[in-house]
Design goal:
Largest sheet: 7 strands, parallel
Number of helices: 12
CATH class of one domain: Alpha Beta
Number of strands: 12
CATH superfamily of one domain: NAD(P)-binding Rossmann-like Domain
CATH architecture of one domain: 3-Layer(aba) Sandwich
Radius of gyration: 20 Å
Shape: globular
Helix content: 40-55%
Bound molecules: nicotinamide-adenine-dinucleotide, thymidine-5'-diphosphate
Structural class: alpha/beta
Strand order of the largest sheet: 3-2-1-4-5-6-10
């Protein structure tokens, strides 16, 4: 039975990846390694936690000895590495946590895989999940391709860029069989409400101000999170060793247009009079070093591996708003921090 390690599986994207792999590949043993930081939430995985091919391991990727021990215990055939500090605003106030987890943590995993697979790399795979933010900021025109030079500008993107470089270094120096993807902004169920889309939905529900940074004309390319999980499955199984693949939704939105769209969807779903929620929009102080525009050219992934996004943003934003309205308990637990008790009840009792 192949053993697959997924790191960060209790987070937003990781939980979708774990669910997809546990359900689609009953022949794999899936080990989800997560430190359960504020962003890790086992309630994201309630529906698969009892699956016979699923194991949860609480651990920190900054703890090299523990990671080496984990590799010795499980004899992994593959790794999909998603664990990270992921929020740009937090990286501005506490950059060191990003260096520790995103850089040191990644190097610890690379080292552990190298030790475990030394002399027998055949059939092994180390898949590093990264972001388009490593490429920096675009003007009005153009797209990030796999050849775009790295130009990270926030502590978050600098830490992810650094981790990408280390992954490539382990490929060239030690022949570790790696593959990397760089994806645009994700949205969908289980997104922690510090990020733009769930924050706006959550604040509309509570009648709170909707903070839009700067002039609101910053642009992001939004991808439905389940399409990212599908892309990760495709790249894990079919991607070429040593290669990088960009993943994007081809769905560019200026923040203000996106927020207004969410307001209108929420008004409709909540039965509000038109334009009720738009009145909550509040322009606030800009994020320092705010990247103006991200846009991905995902043609390599489409042409070489046949992946395409399944839905467009208008549909996805509506599905997301509906999901948050139908999962009030999840949102309340996240807002109150109650989800942190879930681990204690579920695993320590
Ligand atoms: P997230 O913040 O929702 O989840 C991160 C997970 O990693 C959490 O479960 C957390 O507990 C865990 N974690 C954090 N530090 C850890 C540590 N030291 N040891 C073990 N586990 C730890 O993040 P996300 O949005 O799901 O992003 C997952 C990955 O995808 C990240 O590598 C991120 O850079 C990348 N990515 C995210 C996006 C996006 O739009 N969210 C886009 C492209 C790439
Ligand atoms: P975010 O969801 O933090 O993702 P990222 O910074 O990784 O792209 O932010 C998306 C965009 O929304 C970004 O341009 C910053 C902006 N933003 C706001 O305008 N208001 C907010 O409250 C947040 C969290 C983000």
């Amino acid at each position: 039975m192949p053993h697959l390690l997924i790191t960060g599986g209790a987070g937003f994207i990781g939980s979708h990846v774990v669910r997809l792999f546990v359900q689609r590949y009953p022949q794999y043993k899936i080990v989800n390694l997560d430190a359960l930081t504020y962003a890790g939430n086992l309630e994201n995985l309630r529906d698969v936690e009892k699956a016979p091919n699923y194991i949860f391991e609480r651990g920190d990727i900054t703890d090299a000895a523990w990671i080496n021990d984990l590799f010795a215990r499980y004899q992994f055939d593959g790794v999909i590495h998603l664990a990270a500090e992921s929020h740009v605003d937090r990286s501005i106030t506490n950059p060191l946590a990003f260096v520790e987890t995103n850089v040191m943590g990644t190097v610890n995993l690379l080292n552990a895989a190298k030790i475990a697979w030394e002399g027998n790399m055949e059939g092994k795979r180390f898949y590093h999940v990264s972001t388009d933010e490593v490429y920096g900021s675009l003007g009005e025109e153009g797209f990030f391709t796999e050849e775009t030079a790295y130009d990270p500008r926030s502590p978050y993107s600098a830490s992810k860029a650094s981790s990408d470089h280390f992954v490539r270094a382990w490929y060239h120096t030690y022949h570790l069989p790696v593959v990397i993807s760089n994806c645009s902004n994700n949205y969908g169920p289980y997104h922690f409400p510090e990020k733009l889309i769930p924050l706006i939905i959550s604040n509309i529900k509570q009648g709170k101000a909707l903070p839009v940074y700067g002039d609101g004309k910053y642009t992001r390319d939004w991808l439905w999170v389940k399409d990212h999980a599908e892309a990760i499955d495709t790249i894990y199984h079919k991607g070429k060793e040593g290669e990088t693949y960009n993943i994007g939704g081809n769905n560019e939105w200026k923040n203000i247009d996106l927020v207004e769209n969410l307001c209108d969807i929420m008004d409709e779903l909540l039965g509000n009079a038109p334009n009720t929620s738009r009145q909550l929009i509040t322009f606030v102080k800009d994020r320092p070093g705010h990247d103006r525009r991200y846009a991905i050219d995902a043609s390599k992934l489409r042409n070489e591996l046949g992946w395409e996004p399944s839905i467009q943003a208008e549909e996805g934003f509506r599905l997301t708003a509906q999901w948050y309205l139908e999962h009030e308990e999840w949102l309340n637990h996240v807002r109150s921090g109650a989800y942190l008790q879930y681990y204690a009840e579920q695993y320590n009792s």
